Amino acid sequence: MSLNDIPSSERIHIGFFGRRNVGKSSLVNAVTGQQLSIVSETKGTTTDPVTKSMEILPLGPVVIIDTPGIDDEGSLGELRVRRTRQVLNKTDIAVLVADAEAGLLPQEEELLTLFREKKIEYVVAYNKADLLKTVPEAEENSIYVSALKGTNIPELRMMMAAKLKEPAVKKRLVGDLIDPRDMLVLVMPQDVAAPKGRLILPQVQMLRDILDEHALALCVQTEELPAAIDALKDRPRLVITDSQAFKAADAGTPKDVLLTSFSILLARYKGLLDSAVRGVAAVETITPKDTVLIVEGCTHHRQCEDIGTVKIPRGLSRHLGFEVNFATCSGTEYPEDLSPYRMVIHCGGCMLSEREVLYRVKCAEDQGVPITNYGILLAYLQGILPRALEIFPDLKALIG
If both were cysteines, with which of 77, 89, 167, 245 could 72 make a disulfide (CB 3.0 to 4.6 Å apart)? Predict the structure, then answer.
């Protein structure tokens, strides 16, 4: 896998923030060495967040986000400012771009407060330092730069890189649950919803993690699962299924073999699993007057049997015995106010960073709205959630 093939959800997200006309876009272009953003003397040239996946040494693979000015005006300006604030929820490192002559103004101080509240590592870059007669000594976490002259741009990159913190324990999708030479069977239906000529991201990531652990993987479609298990000399360590095939995978997997799903493993990887297991019980409290929010982290062409808009609504309504009211959102959109919803059902989150998933979980929990995910819900509706969580003994107490 080349650096360009690394999914955006696994990259460091670096956001550039500040007022209009302080040179955010010029600094983005200087840092990246590309004309990523349009530059103009006209205030408010950047009207929506601009993102670009790339590699920047010494940072490595990153997503650069150039945002509109935090001081944008008017009704459209308010929307742009709101979008800028939403970018904070996926930002790992923030660069606050300020005018070197003006210094920090109240709106920029407000941004710094938000960075600290959200525990985002940050650097303050005082741009247009070439206009100063004397460049003062920078305070901690600050640097004087000139996007026009290229002054201190390498030093800014080094400061950003210094903000990266290696996790104490590297997170794994499944590698920490298995041993070398364990056999895993992956149930991967290649139906009408599957992309033509390729595998979906969670399947690719799972295969890579299994290979990294020097374990063995056998990939089958749903119908071939029983034959595949019968053909093995020994029982597999684990069967991992697409959540939509949970019922068939449960029937085709011997009871002495562990079974779970891609979505459940992704929920653990993204930090959602505990909340999702606790939240699924809220299904039984839904009434005909309630609305359930279904959230997908990406946008895609919906097929006739789409899981988020067809299968889950149908299955939940059938389970409860009445037609449930549903609302949906996808991509980067996520309501700040969740009070209209009885519960939130989230996708696996393979296209979202861990920080963004955790933000969404916290929003729900802070507002007292239960949140679960596709895999947990589908296992629950089919009565096999305890089995799907057997590989996580510490979660038994959460099932109830």
Answer: 77
181 exposed, middle or buried (CB, 10 Å; 0-12, 13-18, 19+)? exposed
Cα separation, 97 vs 107, whole angstroms: 12
Cα separation values, 371 from 135, 173, 263, 292, 364, Å: 51, 21, 14, 10, 7
As a whole number of angstroms, the distance between CA 37 and CA 270 comes to 30
Quote the pLDDT of residue 130: 93
Return the domain boundaries, the chain. 3-162, 175-266, 281-385
Residue pair 4/63 in contact (Cβ under 8 Å)? The answer is no
Q: How many Cβ atoms from other residues are within 10 Å of residue 19's Cβ?
A: 20
> What separation in angstroms does the CA of 227 have from each of 31, 34, 224, 231, 253?
55, 53, 5, 6, 10
Q: Hey, CA dihedral for 335, 341, 343, 347, is it positive or negative?
A: negative
Calculate the CA 51 to chain-centre distance: 15
Q: Which of 119-133, 195-209, 366-380 has the lowest mean pLDDT?
A: 195-209
Q: Do 175-266 and 3-162 have the same topology in CATH?
A: yes
pLDDT tens digits, 145-203: 999 999 999 999 999 988 887 665 678 999 999 999 999 999 999 865 666 778 888 89
Domain 3-162 part of CATH 3.40.50.300: yes
Give the sign of the dihedral formed by CA 188, CA 360, CA 331, CA 344: positive
Q: Please name which of 70, 114, 66, 96 lies closest in space to residue 160, comparing C-alpha atoms.
A: 96
The answer to whether 70 and 107 are in contact (CB under 8 A) is yes
Q: Which two tokens stand for residue 85?
A: 């604030």
Averaged pLDDT score across all residues of the chain: 87
Which long-range contacts link 306-311 to residues 24+ away (Cβ below 8 Å)?
A: 306/193, 307/193, 307/243, 307/244, 307/374, 308/347, 308/374, 311/244
The whole-number pLDDT of residue 167 equals 61
Question: Domain 175-266 is in which class?
Answer: alpha beta
The fold of the 281-385 domain, in CATH, is Rossmann fold (3.40.50)
Query: Rounded to an integer, what is the distance from CA 95 to the centroid of its chain?
Result: 20
At residue 351, the 3 state secondary structure works out as coil
Secondary structure letter of residue 174 according to DSSP:
S
